[in-house]
Amino acid sequence: AAAAGALGAHRERDVTGRDEGTLELSLGPGGHRLLVTERPFRLDLLRQRELLCSVNARGLLVFEHQRRRRDSLADKVSSVWDKIKSLFRRPLPFFWGGGPPIPDRICPPQPAESAAEPEEEPGMWEETFKTHTDSKPYGPTSVGLDFSLPGFEHVYGIPEHADNLRLRPTEGGDPYRLYNLDVFQYELFNPMALYGSVPLLLAHRPRLSLGIFWLNAAETWVDIGSNTAGKTLFGKLLDYMQGGGETPQTEVRWMSESGVIDVFLLLGPRPHDVTAQYGRLTGTQALPPLFSLGYHQSRWNYQDEADVEAVERGFEEHELPMDVLWLDIEHADGKRYFTWDPAKFPNPRRMLEHLAARKRRLVSIVDPHIKVDAGYRVHAELKARGLFVKTKDGNDYEGWCWPGSSAYPDFTNPEMREWWASMFAFDQYEGSTEALFTWNDMNEPSVFSGPEVTMHKDARHFGGWEHRELHNLYGLYVQRATAEGQIRRSGGRLRPFVLGRAFFAGSQRYGAVWTGDNTAEWDHLRISIPMCLSFGLAGLAFCGADVGGFFQNPGPELQVRWYQAGAFQPFFRAHAHLDTARREPWLLRPEHLQLVRAALRRRYALLPLWYTAFYRCHRQGIPVMRCGTPNTPNPPQKPQIYSKNPKSTPKTPPGIQHIPPGIVWHPKNPKSTSKTPNPPQKPTWDTAPQTLYVPVTLGTIPVFQRGGTVIPRQDRPRRSTEAMRGDPFTLYVALSPQGTAEGELYLDDGISFDYATKNQFLHRHFAFANGTLTSSSADPRGSMSTPAWLERVVILGMGRPERALLTTHDGSQTPLEFRHDPEHSVLTLRRPGVPIGEDWSISLR
């Protein structure tokens, strides 16, 4: 446990106080101290004299040890043998001769009997769920611990749940459950378990954030309560430390079915500090290949090669940008993964080469359930190597999934992961090329015939571990092995792209995730926003939701709105169920198609911002998609912020828009924003707080740029991200009330690891102050050649200057043409023409 580690590793100079049964430790230069009380055991975390968190204040620490069932055959044999031995330890009842009895020198005195086991209760050794029986050979082995958070009323995290961003108190109902499950048509605003689990909870209040990371992969429940510290025994300590009075607090209790107590307290103090600290523990989001930030078109299923080519041609003919087409389970031969249906996909290599020539790519599904078929090479090899998960009796574990009877690879076994990775080599995955990437669905794992549609808890893994101990890790191991396979097939040169449905802490290192099988309803569109925000807080920055909804058929308005919202989420994919109507964008009416095209083009124009945000996330652990500001006491549910810059409010059922105090937000369409219900012709951009009335039609979505920021864009429409390489940039500079702004741009080749291994990248910093915009290197270690150049600069909130003068890195100066819009205070500088990777400045006088 973290507490035990702190005690065991402390140095004497870290001890700042000692009393009978109490130890005070200094936790470093931040002023944090830890009070350790022996009896009753309690940990109190303080910053100066402020109490931040108390562990076990309610005395709910639980650690059930493993037991042996007394009525087992081994116990019966042992009991008989003990009785036989006891006969030879007793003094003889009479003697053949004089003198005392001879001492027993063979059997030493036995230790005193151990404390009696508790009385057996129903369910101690096995439990029944519907028709399934779960044996528990070690008895109940649960662990649990409570945390009291004085002054914190808002807690977040512990995805995945289809709920608001702020976690609700669970008193009187079920706690939030973390147990990866394949859930059919999941319920909203419910603490039920879904596809993935990250046991990270964040607490936030003005000027302070904390994190609790409960490192346990077994089934876990999180109970959240609200209280007033002054009304509890724990409050007495708080009164002493902070001067009395009643302080609102949140109480959190973690309970896991098995495992050990291994807890990390993340001290913040800012939200981004907490996420960065968590990133140092579990890894940050892998930097995705640039194409994966474009638009993905999917459904269950595109039927054959002709269908794939027709869909790709449709995007071309209707001038819609798109990067990736997807194939679901029907593409494989009888759902035997790593194969192609010979009738529907007779020449997959030619299909992939055609897409690559159009600068597009393909994703195929490879699920972790393997069809039981002696003639199927994958099944035959894994069976021969003994690499499947086993039953409690040592046989291969088999269950029912898409192919029918299926076996499940044991991805906890390093040999299994090594074998799986080797299958992505071009000579193993027949028909594959560098343009083919992977979707790992059903990796909870999904077992249609299993309890709760997953694997039996008493199944056995590598090393003898029961499935109950590591259930939530299974999906991570699947995605990890797949990502390693993609890296290996290129000789370690190219970055992978893998989408997984199940996840755990650390899954961010291996690819993207999504919210699972949602429904074409307005509430599902709305809930996708807090769900993705919660993912980001837990390190899973590359997340999204099925645009349009997986189940059912969206109406045209819902479909358009979902594209508009999805364009502002990190992973942007449309997907649909087999039984839904086809919904490629050009099947909409022309007026709706035009709106979808605009949403797609906006996404692609902002890709430089997205990619820069992912680089910052990769380096520092800062979420790509987030809401509010670091000191917002109650972050709103709907607004989204990306890389400190734009803020969008997707049009969903009515909600409240909150703008933090002291901030200027520049509307991207200033004519549509007003302080009154009947907007005047000329808007004003005063600092918050204020209420803005934003008239919205189906063709508009409220998008604001925060004052004080610089956003890079590439505004020329192209068919894909690869087609945009070398395109010129436009900088949008939104001035703060002080007339300043800053931003950044990150560029690399978009596909390889050369940015990390060879420092082949550009990282530029833009700053506007005192009437001058400058570009300088944000990281001098990086260098890269690029034909990209600066085409325009648009400055929001700027008066008309007398002149604009460009100064390049060699000192030469050139006057620039400009246009000024006095009604909206927008200044546009035309064709500076400088390379985007060079130093330069533009002075306005």
From TrEMBL:
CC annotations in GO: glucosidase II complex
Domain (Glycoside hydrolase family 31 TIM barrel) ranges: 286-613
Residue span(s) of domain Glycoside hydrolase family 31 N-terminal: 21-223
GO biological process, one term: carbohydrate metabolic process
Sequence ranges of Low complexity compositional bias: 639-650
Chain positions covered by the region annotation Disordered: 1-20, 628-688
UniProt-listed InterPro entries: Gal_mutarotase_sf_dom, GH, Glyco_hydro_31_N_dom, Glyco_hydro_31_TIM, Glyco_hydro_b
GO molecular function: carbohydrate binding; glucan 1,3-alpha-glucosidase activity
Feature: compositional bias, Basic and acidic residues: 9-20
Family: Belongs to the glycosyl hydrolase 31 family.
Protein name per Swiss-Prot or TrEMBL: Glucosidase II alpha subunit
